[in-house]
From TrEMBL:
Protein name, as recorded: Cytochrome P450
Keywords attached to this entry: Heme, Iron, Metal-binding, Monooxygenase, Oxidoreductase
Family, similarity comment: Belongs to the cytochrome P450 family.
Metal-binding found in the keyword field: yes
Lineage, top ranks: Bacteria, Bacillati, Actinomycetota, Actinomycetes, Streptosporangiales
GO molecular function, one term: oxidoreductase activity, acting on paired donors, with incorporation or reduction of molecular oxygen
A Pfam family assignment: p450
InterPro entries membership: Cyt_P450, Cyt_P450_B, Cyt_P450_CS, Cyt_P450_sf
């Protein structure tokens, strides 16, 4: 095969059957020509292809390696542009990537994340108590629990002042759900950036025991002022948005399969097994842009020409029968499957993976422990999917709490 001159699939953010689309992508080949928001790219939907793409030294996240033709097709108002054009650690490579990632690697080490467990448990308990105090009737668990909990945890880690958190999460919610007019989105972005900028400035004047202070301390030595702001902004978004989907998806999967729920609730399997299986089967990320060929590259028998883009298809790879066999489409916590790619692979493996896993495990354990009668208030196939080529979840998760165990 040669360059993706003609897309075989147009990826639709509003598609309801994401997994059906993913299956068609896998069946079409290791790398498949697609179009997304007018951009043409190769889609890596099979597990082996995605693993090779994520780790290949000649596929770069640096947009400067994308062809001029490809860049011209990028929509300024689309969901791809903010990610593709970000001049942050997300798209840095080589020594630049190591320089920007190094300070954060120390903060997000497994040891330091494990030490955060008591605080994560305390924050989770507060949100469980809030749920218990809600009036009887269906509760949107995504809005009332899965969304605010990770926001509060990452705000704690970073040092966002408590009196500014509601403002920050409100603006962020507008941006991550891309709701509203371009003017509303621009206002939300300005509001979010103002909170972050003012917090960074306050930490310059008065350092505290938090991540923002740690980053500010590196200004002039390891980071510039602009890099500190960009890193803080990126960490806030990355530190909660996928965990929101993880918790939403895991609760829905467990409630839809009581037999699997009984295995973890009864202690036969750990909550970590439910987290990992939810990450595999319902990756918080559907697709993620983009990697560019520095030179001609062959992936699983397909030639990607210099300057062409490759889209990472995490939702498709997590259900690949070539990797996961008969369990590929089934939620199964009874045994550990082969590792998944939902947190990435290679040099850009997600720094926040230990924190996301911790918050997911604590959230599930606390929620199902507090509400033994928890049940879906709406059949799973009637829930509306998030309309995004980037995210994989549902816009809401209506449940009946069924009374507490306290």
């Amino acid at each position: 095969m040669t360059a993706p001159e003609r897309a075989r699939f147009v990826l639709d953010p509003a598609v309801r059957d994401v997994h059906g689309e993913s299956a068609r992508l896998r069946e079409a080949g290791a790398l498949v020509p697609v179009e997304v928001e007018g951009v043409r790219a190769w889609a890596a939907a099979r597990h082996a292809a995605l693993e090779a793409v994520l780790a290949h030294p000649d596929l770069s996240r640096d947009v400067r390696h994308w062809s001029a033709e490809g860049r011209r097709a990028l929509r300024a108002d689309g969901s791809l542009a903010p990610i593709v054009l970000a001049r942050t650690m997300l798209n840095a490579e080589g020594e630049e990537h190591r320089r920007l990632r190094g300070p954060l690697s120390r903060v997000f080490s497994a040891r330091r994340i494990a030490a955060m467990r008591p605080r994560v448990e305390a924050v989770t308990a507060e949100f469980v108590d809030r749920l218990a105090g809600l009036p009887p009737g269906p509760v949107d668990l995504r809005r009332e629990f899965a969304y605010p909990l990770p926001c509060e945890v990452i705000s704690d880690v970073m040092g966002i002042p408590r009196e500014r958190r509601a403002e920050l999460t409100g603006n962020d919610h507008v941006l991550t759900t891309t709701r509203g007019t371009p003017e509303r989105l621009a206002g939300a972005r300005a509001g979010r950036d103002a909170v972050i900028r003012e917090t960074v400035e306050e930490r310059r004047r008065s350092p505290a025991d938090d991540l923002i202070s740690d980053l500010v301390a590196l200004e002039g030595a390891e980071l510039t002022e602009g890099e500190v702001f960009d890193t803080v902004q990126e960490l806030y978004v990355a530190g909660h948005v996928t965990t929101v989907n993880l918790i939403t998806n895991a609760v829905r999967l467990l409630l839809a399969d009581p037999g699997q729920l009984d295995l973890v609730r009864g202690g036969e399997r750990p909550w970590s097994a439910a987290v990992e299986e939810a990450l595999r089967l319902e990756s918080p990320l559907r697709h993620f842009p983009m990697r560019y060929a520095v030179r001609d590259v062959e992936i699983c028998g397909v030639t990607v020409r210099k300057g062409e883009a490759v889209l990472a298809c995490f939702a498709a790879a997590g259900r690949d029968p070539g990797r996961y066999g008969q369990r590929a489409e089934r939620f199964d916590v009874a045994s550990d499957p082969p590792p998944h790619l939902s947190f990435g692979h290679g040099a850009h493996f997600c720094l926040g993976a230990p924190l996301g896993r911790l918050v997911g495990e604590v959230a599930l354990s606390a929620l199902f422990g507090a509400f033994p009668g928890l049940a879906l208030a709406k059949p799973p196939d009637e829930l509306d999917p998030v309309r995004s080529v980037l995210a994989l979840s549902t816009t809401s998760l209506p449940v009946l709490l069924g009374g507490t165990s306290r």
